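Reproducibility note. Readers wishing to regenerate the assembly model reported in the main text can use the exact inputs given here. Chain order matters: entities are listed in the order in which they were concatenated for prediction.
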Amino acid sequence: MTPGAYLDHAATTPVSAAALAAFVDEAQRPGNASSLHAAGRRARRVVEESRESIARALGARPSEVIFTGGGTEADNLAIKGIFWGRRAQDTRRTRVLVSAVEHHAVLDPAFWLAGHAGAEIVLLPVDGEGRLDLDALRADLAAHAEETALVSVMWANNEVGTVQPIREVVRLAHQFGVPVHTDAVQAVGQIEVGFAASGVDALTVTAHKLGGPQGVGALLARRDLAIEAVQHGGGQERGVRSGTLDVPAIRGFAVAVEEAVTALPERAAHLAALRDALVTGVATAVPEAVLRGPDPLADPSARLPANAHFTFPGAEGDSLLYLLDSAGVQASTGSACQAGVPQPSHVLLAMGVPEAEARGALRFSLGATSRADDVAALLGALPAVVARARTAGLVGKGLS
Amino acid sequence: MRVLAAMSGGVDSAVAAALAVEAGHEVVGVHMALSRSRDQFRTGSRGCCSIEDASDARRAADILGIPYYVWDLSETFEETVVADFLAEYQAGRTPNPCVRCNERVKFEALLDKATALGFDAVATGHYARVVERPGPDGTTRRELHRSPNAEKDQSYVLAVMGPDRLERAIFPLGDFTSKEEVRAQAARRGLAVSSKPDSYDICFVADGDTRGFLRDRLGSRPGEIVDTEGAVVGEHDGAYAYTVGQRRGLALGRPAADGRPRYVLDVRTDSNTVVVGPAELLTVNRIAGEKATWLVETASLADPTDVAVQIRAHGAPVPACVRASDDGAGLQVELTGPRLRGVAAGQSVVVYRGTQVLGQATVSRAWRDRAAAPGAVSAPGGVSGSGA
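Running the prediction on these inputs yields the following structure tokens for the assembly.
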């Protein structure tokens, strides 16, 4: 790993030793899981054992696990596949309800459907901490349930770490007969995620946020959920997701999920303690910093244990990121980029943060390999970095 | 020194960054995003603003082993360069957006931000030389000179930067005599941009269609094209889109009585009228400039030796006698040799002594001495890319 303090585990986190060993071992064996000979059968067995292992860890049935090439693909399959499947059952179902703070992997396919398939997208509002407004969901469903194809609300937010009231979302939606998809990419491995227990109809998970390799993930989807294929071909994965299965990646994914879920109680406590130290440390080092998202000291369950997010008034995110990077501290502005340009975060804007303040955002996210030293490196560098970034932020202001 | 290398994604700025690294500086590459809605790929000869250009800059930085960031300067760019471009055309003048970009974005917004973040200088891939000479009291004076590569020389679009900013600018390509040499240097370092085509068009005007861009942003405003006698000879969609000296695209209904080509002589935005006439009426020998900036003491202008002015990025310099106003903010030019044809208000007039840039101003007026009533005359909108 790059030397220095890596505080961007929400972007990706190192592959665990066990997952890497499994991946490397598998990569040395031949076999297409769809082949009928011995090598193919062996590969298929690895895939099915991995499927069972992931299902067990996430409280799902093996037949509910659809392997994909990662979280974005799983989200696309959920949004487009469920929309098409539900509309095929009833042509009135054209509405897609998504929270305003979803990842682009959910928002963009939804808006693509609006542009190409006659969908109507409803952005559900959130409160100042990024938590879904359940009353707005209830009101919309009460008025339009029959025209609604699906509801998609993330399990926990990738920028500010807000844990969403998924059970309430499911209860409401199911009351009106509407299925629920949840993007649990950030949640799995940090908080308890149970597919069956939550009642959701589809759930996105990805390997590389929890110690597995990049480029593999899964959509957990109930067997009775109407879902159309997005990618067509050899008919793998229930015919819903064609394409040769990436056996080494799937095995590494399964090992990582099992490891992350087994280690969860201990790891979450470690992450939360470290994160709380980070949050209190930043408040001391830079008193004007504003914590965004739920206050973990007030209600630890409201926020992912590994997430901290601040805005720094008067400073630009790109200046902060550059200066921290030069000081050996790697963080993120948290929002989506276009060719490396941080855009003002739609999550912060949806939370009611003014655009000027949203520009000075930094997300710090921890992982299994994070240590107190990483937080200390951040806290040591931060005051000078923020002071300098604020000076740079004043450049050009008031001139015309 | 800590040097910020401005990297457009082109070959010049990539080699400039490489030379800054090899000179022993601590270099960080920065790509300026000048628009938030960017095309995926380069099209035509626009050279700086696609995502592909940003990726090319990133790859160059990878190969040089330097950190790389994209800075969003799109708001500054829109508020300064694009807004000025529109306002100037709307006022019937001919702006040079590359000059404004150097003045307000590269060597102001970017340079000031870099300075605030702890950089000592900004390096760009401009073709111009900085010559250091001992000053009177043991200090070092920096002079801006033309590139020895006359074809690529960009001193014209850099003249606006002023002495303070010149102190913090590095032009590593200053001594290069040919573009081929720069491409060879890029190839030698394994920089994939070595064979990337040059850029010429205004980066924010798609397809090089300036008139279409102006119409989209300023709206259609139909009016008349008249000759010097006031007779209506054609129609237009908005006088602002015409440039004094322009010949093409006039679409005149009635041919001239003498059958000779006609040029735009004046753009009267108050009456939304374009005046056309014969080429000889475009010839001027006097130019007045405003918003002047100087890289030398204006007193030195008293010595007329080798003083010349240039009114286009790649125009020829012509000998002149130049006087600065007492406060230095204005200048008066009298051409002492060949006259210039088509000098538009809004263009930059850059003053040289030999290869050295002395200063520059924005043309406010140009006229012929013999004319009874001086009328503003301007030049074909020869806007050329500033590169880098």
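We highlight two features of this model. The CA atoms of residues 60 and 191 of chain B lie 6 Å apart. The radius of gyration of chain B is 21 Å.
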